[in-house]
Amino acid sequence: MPLLIAARICNFTVNKNNSMYEFVYCSAARPDLDSHDIARILGSARDYNSKNNITGCLVYYNNEFIQLLEGDREILQKLFSKISLDDRHSRITILAEGHKEKRVFNNWSMAYHELSEGDVQAISKDVFTGNFIAFSQYAQKDTFPAILFWSKVCLLLQQ
Question: What is the DSSP string of 124-150?
Fold first, then answer.
């Protein structure tokens, strides 16, 4: 079962004249989504995000996406319009959104790892889930969308 945790590595700062915004959404992946589709999603996200000063975290697990994005409000609204039209997922729901002072995912890098049968045998899902949930307890949670994002990710991993 593939697990994707991705975020864009950037060191952006918030300009006092430019307000930082964030939103969290979830969606259901198309049932036939495969690793090639994920690679295309990551490639286009990396390109768009770096050109538009966007950071965030995308989690894909058990055919569900959960993503927190942060950046300029107008740019995020345009991006969400594009995300909403993407046929690789459905039931797209914004869970929370709002203004914020600073980025949560300022120094994260893009990562992707698809668990093979050998990986699953080497590490149990319970160990991975426990470690990720422990990590989430230390993650920065300055805003309601950030709190909701980490809570939703933990619930998804415990399914």
Answer: -HHHHHHHHHHHHHHS---SHHHHHHH
Would you call 23 exposed, middle or buried from its count of C-beta atoms within 10 A (0-12, 13-18, 19+)? buried
Cβ contacts of 73 within 8 Å, gap of 6 or more: 19, 21, 99
pLDDT tens readout for residues 29-71: 999 998 889 888 888 888 888 888 888 888 887 888 888 898 9
Evaluate whether 1 touches 61 at the Cβ level (below 8 Å): yes
Reading the block at residue 26, the tokens are: 């979830």
pLDDT digits (tens, 9 = 90+) for 100-139: 888 877 755 444 445 555 665 556 666 666 666 666 665 6
In the chain the domains, ranked by start, together with CATH numbers, are 3-157 (3.30.70.100)
Q: Apex CA 40: angle with CA 35 and CA 41, to 5°?
A: 95
